[in-house]
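Comment thread on ticket #2218

A.B. wrote:
> Attaching the input chain for the structure job we discussed in standup.
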Amino acid sequence: MTSDHRLTWLPHLLIGILTSLASIQALSPSIDVDTWWHLRVAQWIDEHHQLPNTDPFSRYGIETHKEWIAYSWLWEQILYRCYQFHGIEGTLLFRYVMVMLVLITWAAILFQMLRSPVLGIVCFALSIVCLHPMWTTRPWHFTILGTILTLYSCKQLYEGANGPYFWGLPCIYAIWANVHIQFVLGFAVIACAWLGFYCDKRLFPKTITYLGVTCFIATLLNPYTYQLYWVIIEYAGHTFALRAVVELAPPDWKEPWTWATWISCGLAFVDTIRRNPKSVFAWSLLLCGLFFSMRMRRDLWFGAATAVTVMSLYRNAPLESLSVRRTAIIVFGTLSLGWMGWYGVVRPHLDWQKIISKEYPLDAVQHVLHRRYSPPMYNSFDWGGFLIFYLPQYPVSIDGRTNLHTDTRLERYALTWAGLGDWQEDPDLRVASFIIAPVNQPLTNVLRQDASWTIDYEDALAVVFVRRKTP
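C.D. wrote:
> Ran it. Output below, let me know if you need it in another format.
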């Protein structure tokens, strides 16, 4: 009896341990480079009482009146309210709440679908690894949540379940379209379900069709309506950003989350061969997950989520030794204890000014404000978002909004900061009056030897160059 009792609690213990690993990562006192410009967007909306239609933050956008829409405006407003409430710690709390929602939902649905504690724990562990890079302050948490709910709904509809709760999905999409444009992943899942239903059952999938159309209409309930889809097309047309930006680049085989995704998809492949070899839904969903996850590093989790859904098809065995409600409670309890422990033990010893100064040129910014340089400013890609927030009076030359800056501009900046080619002919550099440069960039070393520039400030992280005045 004692042995059985221990075995009964072993799965719950493992779930708690796995959740605690995610909690540690989510509570890391690091600030994502895009957090800053997201905060500034919300701040700008508050100041002007409207949403932007052209870019107000970069010199390129201001001078060319470049169209740019704040497609994550709702998420940015919530983030900024958290920042007003408790500074950077407020944004960390918001991030942690979103992580809790994702993990609780995923744990409950995963064990409900797979019906097996052993397979469930293996897949949950692989999912925790795949989600590891996603625990930063970004709107993609809602994309993960929306995709999970879409996968579960389509799986239930495919297996013949009925219920009014499916029609809550369009409400999710209405919010999703105001938070993050990756709702296209949800439409990819719905398309796979439609194809699978039509091919596997030889019936026209009315319910899935109505659901897909309703969700599409729901995405138009945003301040920009159909213009949101132009942003998706812009992102799809970029090529250089997909190679140069880490999160948009293809997966790196040296990273464990890449292998975790492949293992998940491998398990789903073997399971489909064994149980559902003729299922068009299973194969289309698995291939869809592989396509998106192998295209971008930030979508690796999507491959793991689709793999779990494929393995769950037609598993109707009773749920063994695991209560879905108890699993959700364990995940919630573990994450809550993690927050309380961090807040009571770690937080009092954190110096956010020092943390920010180690990652971003905070001291250099203070120097710029003191010296009151004349614009224009020239800056690096990674620091653009930070400078948008801390130096709003100086339009940045570049920042992380890759849909705003063309491939030509992004490639030009990469070459300039590498000190390659005709870097002196960079049009933004040629007109700049000062530069905020990371100390470890090749361009920084080149500028030290350039007679056109003089160093006006330097610390361990940043150098401020000022253009010499010609006689």
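A.B. wrote:
> Thanks. Noting for the ticket: The two ends are 92 Å apart (CA to CA).
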